[in-house]
Amino acid sequence: MACCSAFVAPVATAWVALPLFAFWLPLMAIIWLYLLGIAHLISGYFSPIEIAMTIIVGAASLIGIAFFARFKSHLSAMTAVILFVGVAALQYGCFVLSFSPSIAHR
Hints:
0% strand
């Protein structure tokens, strides 16, 4: 989604990407807290590939948030908030939808 926005509206790209980074970083942290036995907010088994992916996604999210911190926005505050909230809601909706039986058991 963020990559596509870079072609369509480059000025909005950072505001499209930030909620994605902000969604996935805590999720990866929760997985690592579970793997380290610190917190049990989730349960399950994670294969070595899945564990490696948590590192990659977490690192990419950290880097993305760090780059956003240096970003100078040329959008109005209202446009930025609408983009952020809209993309965050879309990401959350996709995440919840991924747990529906018709998708989760494929």
